[in-house]
Amino acid sequence: MAFSSTQALVDIVDDDRDVLGSLRFLLEAEGFEVRSFSSGADCLACPLDKSPDCFVIDYKLEGMNGLELVRCLRLAGQCAPIVLITGYPDETIPAKALLDGVRHVVLKPHVEESLIAHVRSAIVEGALKRP
């Protein structure tokens, strides 16, 4: 399947404004269309006139953690793949994420090195699952 980032919409959720801005810049520089949210509640409250092709969600969010947001998104009918980012080297996070259907987990010190590859891979996987 051919991949073109210019056709892909990525929603980012991170409560750290500096990280949110950096992630947005990184993805837009690669040609992705990006919407950004500073909380899980903001993401859930946004009328999604256009469903994203991928979510990039921080694990540690104010009010709810990233996996709680994942569960809320799934309950709301969002089936887009998710890339979870975390600054916590807790070895249980990837296993917990996998239980919630999140196959891509990126550690924050390595975000710039691997986020784009994970987002592209998640979008392709998601596209292959669509009818």
Automatic annotation (TrEMBL):
<dbReference type="InterPro" id="IPR011006">
    <property type="entry name" value="CheY-like_superfamily"/>
</dbReference>
<keyword id="KW-0597">Phosphoprotein</keyword>
<dbReference type="InterPro" id="IPR001789">
    <property type="entry name" value="Sig_transdc_resp-reg_receiver"/>
</dbReference>
<dbReference type="Pfam" id="PF00072">
    <property type="entry name" value="Response_reg"/>
</dbReference>
<protein>
    <submittedName>
        <fullName>Response regulator</fullName>
    </submittedName>
</protein>
<feature type="domain" description="Response regulatory">
    <location>
        <begin position="9"/>
        <end position="123"/>
    </location>
</feature>
<feature type="modified residue" description="4-aspartylphosphate">
    <location>
        <position position="58"/>
    </location>
</feature>
<dbReference type="InterPro" id="IPR050595">
    <property type="entry name" value="Bact_response_regulator"/>
</dbReference>
